[in-house]
């Protein structure tokens, strides 16, 4: 199962740290393709491929959090044990938080840190944006306004038709998310936000502080919502430079 869930674009069998990367709404694991080349050789970048996109295009995407976390946790637990940092962008941040919580009592696979980008804290609940209920044309318009979706996809009705089910499912997943009260994580939590991101505010990012009893850091970068998907851009490069330094210390 983990062969479908977890992709390594640049295998590093001697890595000392694993960075488990979760994409945002409608995105595929490919958004992390260039990360391995920009991070230390001691770091194994392991990108999560969710159903309904990429090589799993024909699979049914998830629209509810609990069954998604059940399946993803099973895939992670099947991996060789390695100190793991979970990174999530946008919706992937909430999925990463729920995965870290699910694995917190696993002696071998409990994450050693969580890094979130471009999403309000889980305790604030869903943003309440019912984009998944929109007709296809209006949903495509939302994706155009948000940015991040390749223009080649938006410009071709056939490609857009293939991409919309996963986009719609991810928005349904985010819309239906309900935070469950629980003890905070006992691992460091780092959060990154884009100063030009209109989808979440700095106070909403700062609220992640409530989800750890360990150290918390918040860094605002000069980018928009999709800065993690642009590893060679100013904000994406700054993110990877800082993240690389932190991961090298763990290794």
Give a verbal description of the structure.
By secondary structure, the chain is an alpha/beta fold. Helices cover 35% and strands 15% of the residues. The chain is built from 9 helices and 7 strands, in the order H-E-E-H-E-H-E-H-E-H-H-H-E-H-E-H. The protein has helices spanning 2-5, 35-38, 65-77, 91-102, 136-146, 151-154, 157-175, 202-206, 234-250, and strands at 6-7, 17-22, 43-48, 84-89, 113-117, 189-194, 216-221. Strands 1-3-2-4-5-6-7 form a 7-stranded mixed β-sheet, with helices on both faces. Helix 4 (91-102) links the parallel strand 4 (84-89) and strand 5. Helix 3 (65-77) packs across helix 4. The chain is globular, with a radius of gyration of 17 Å. The chain starts with a helix and ends with a helix.
Characterize the quaternary organization of these chains: single chain
Strand content: 5-15%
Task: Report the sheet with the most strands, covering strand number, pairing sense and barrel closure.
Answer: 7 strands, mixed
Residue share in helix:
25-40%
The chain-level structural class is alpha/beta
The strand line-up of the biggest sheet is 1-3-2-4-5-6-7
The low-confidence runs, each spanning 5 or more residues with pLDDT under 50, are none
SSE sequence, one letter per element: HEEHEHEHEHHHEHEH
For the termini, the CA-CA separation is 27 Å
- Number of helix segments? 9
Mean pLDDT: 92
Task: Give a count of the beta strands, DSSP E runs of length 2 or more.
Answer: 7
Which term fits the overall shape?
Answer: globular
Supply Rg.
Answer: 17 Å
């Amino acid at each position: 199962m983990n062969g479908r869930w977890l992709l390594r674009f640049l295998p590093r069998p001697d890595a000392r740290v694993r960075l488990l990367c979760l994409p945002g709404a409608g995105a595929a694991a490919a958004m992390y393709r260039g990360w391995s080349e920009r991070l230390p050789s001691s770091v194994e970048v392991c990108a999560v491929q969710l159903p309904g996109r990429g090589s799993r295009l024909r699979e049914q995407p998830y629209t509810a959090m609990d069954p998604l976390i059940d399946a993803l946790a099973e895939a992670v637990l099947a991996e060789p044990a390695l100190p793991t940092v979970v990174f999530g962008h946008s919706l992937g941040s909430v999925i990463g938080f729920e995965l870290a919580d699910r694995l917190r009592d696993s002696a071998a696979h409990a994450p050693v840190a969580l890094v979130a980008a471009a999403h309000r804290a889980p305790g604030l609940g869903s943003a309440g944006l019912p984009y998944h209920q929109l007709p296809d044309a209006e949903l495509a318009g939302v994706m155009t306004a948000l940015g991040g979706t390749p223009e080649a996809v938006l410009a071709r009705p056939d490609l857009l038709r293939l991409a919309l089910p996963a986009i719609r499912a991810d928005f349904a997943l985010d819309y239906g998310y309900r935070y469950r009260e629980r003890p905070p994580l006992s691992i460091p939590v780092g959060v990154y936000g884009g100063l030009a991101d209109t989808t979440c505010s700095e106070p909403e990012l700062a609220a992640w502080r409530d989800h750890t009893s360990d150290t918390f850091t918040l860094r605002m970068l000069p980018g928009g919502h999709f800065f993690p998907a642009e590893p060679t851009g100013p904000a994406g490069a700054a993110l990877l430079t800082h993240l690389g330094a932190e991961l090298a210390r763990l290794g």
